[in-house]
Write a structure and sequence with these properties.
single chain, 226 residues, alpha/beta, Purple Acid Phosphatase, chain A, domain 2, 5-stranded mixed sheet, 20% strand, binds manganese (II) ion
């Protein structure tokens, strides 16, 4: 099965649409996996969530896999327990985006809360932030799956399959705005919302068969495509 994996979108709907068009994905028989962080910081959080919800309703959650990111979790925690961390961690843009469309953020709670923390196929484990080394997949704590950084990506631990993750921009790992092959893992957050680009990997079996990159605009800092 042809699989397209995409990193952190953060309200960058236009770049996502361009990427899907370039990849010419047929969701009736191919799989799309998004690694989480759909909301906050970028301009179109509301429209992006509406779009993803429609896509998943149309093609099902086996073909449209929408993983949960720490930003979705912050929004869930805000809605469930009025935890304040979200609003100053990018939530303002999301609230503004909802208000602009006269939509109530409460309506999106069940959709966000339905998003799984990880997904696996025959060759890969897909997760927003990463895994804690030495801990079995089923035993991982949600906080690690959503937030972990160096302890995961600097580790040489073998998780049994290659781990595809977002969350930590590749530019913070190796100084480049391009997906990065690390030990037993692939970093895919190319920092679209921070002036990088949005990247998609096309996977078939255990190989990467194509890489798609879409710039975030005129001031793109991504030398490979600017
Ligand atoms: Mn994140």
């Amino acid at each position: 099965m042809r699989t397209l994996v995409i990193g952190d979108t953060h309200g960058c709907l236009d770049e996502l649409l361009t990427l899907l068009e370039e990849a010419a994905i047929d969701l009736s028989r191919e799989r799309l996996i998004l690694l989480g962080d759909y909301i906050d910081r970028g301009p179109k959080s509301y429209q992006l969530l509406q779009y993803l919800q429609k896509l998943q309703t149309t093609y099902g959650s086996e073909n449209v896999v929408l993983l949960r990111g720490n930003h979705e979790q912050m929004a869930i925690d805000y809605l469930q327990h009025h935890k304040s961390g979200w609003s100053y961690n990018g939530g303002h843009e999301t609230m503004y985006s909802f208000a602009k469309h006269k939509a109530d953020i409460v309506e999106i709670h069940d959709f966000l809360n339905s998003m799984p923390l990880y997904f696996t196929d025959d060759y890969y484990i897909y997760v927003h932030a990463g895994l804690k080394p030495g801990v079995a997949l089923e035993e991982q704590r949600p906080d690690d799956l959503l937030w972990i950084r160096e302890e995961f990506y600097r580790s040489a631990y073998d998780f049994g399959k290659t781990v595809v993750f977002g969350h930590t921009p590749t530019v913070n790992i190796n100084g480049r705005y391009r997906y990065a092959m690390l030990h037993n893992k692939i970093a895919l957050d190319t920092a679209c919302v921070f002036g990088g680009c949005l990247s998609a990997l096309e996977l078939q079996g255990d190989s990467i068969t194509q890489v798609y990159m879409v710039t975030s605009g005129k001031n793109c800092r991504c030398p490979e495509i600017a």
